[in-house]
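Researcher: Structure for this, please.
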Amino acid sequence: MRISVIVPTYNRPKALKLCLLSLASQSIMPYEILIADDGSTAETRATVLEMQEKLKHAFPVKHIWHEDIGFRKPKILNETVRQSSGDYLIFIDGDCMAHRHFIRSHVENSSPEAILSGKRVEIGKELTMLLLDRGTILNSFNLRLLWDAAMSRSRKVEEAVMIRNRYLRHMTHRDRITDDGIWGCNFSLYKNLFIAVNGCDEDFLDGSIEDNDLGIRVLNQGKQVRSVRGLAIIFHLWHDSSWSFENDKYQHNLSILKRRIANKEPVCKNGIRKL
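Model: Predicted structure, token format:
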């Protein structure tokens, strides 16, 4: 299986560097890394060039970029998938670091009949700044993270605990993901399934619930959404957020999602192909 890891990013070069370093520390290496860049500035381009040279022994790093004219993440993701060479696609946001078994866990649980999704550990502001300043990755559960959680800074650290036993996964609800749908920072599927649902819907206006839509269309295709919580673990670096349930863009996105569910639509029209 050829594995293409897709890394969306926008103007967080230091975080992107840690993401790429974590992917270079995997127990299973990908065939390629593709950075889906929604219009970042020259600083990100310079970081990519640096990492392309630094990681050339591990895998090729491709940089797919388009002009910044506002949020167009679905569009750059579709273009990045077009340029990918893999049979299997794994998505991780450029402000996240992957547990060393992240790729292995997605691959071992992959199925042509399913899209897989996990959640993420929320690293607190202080620890995030420390990691960014030092250029140090966090790719496993450790005492530093536990202490940060105990101090009420990092959150959801229970998602960093690896749980492989089937019965224990069921008892701890790690086998469940559909309550939240697909998390765009941590999911995977076969490329032909991504094409079958027509990729990302470019009608979404900002970064809210556009990832859930992929899972809904997979379900409407008669396929499954499966959890890799406690298996495919990622660590999200803190950043400011202005996300809101109340803004007009979120309401626009929500209307698309509601229509998709009500009409059981298996594809979008404004996706990787224009229908």
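Researcher: Any notable elements?
Model: The longest strand covers residues 3-9. The longest helix spans residues 248-263.
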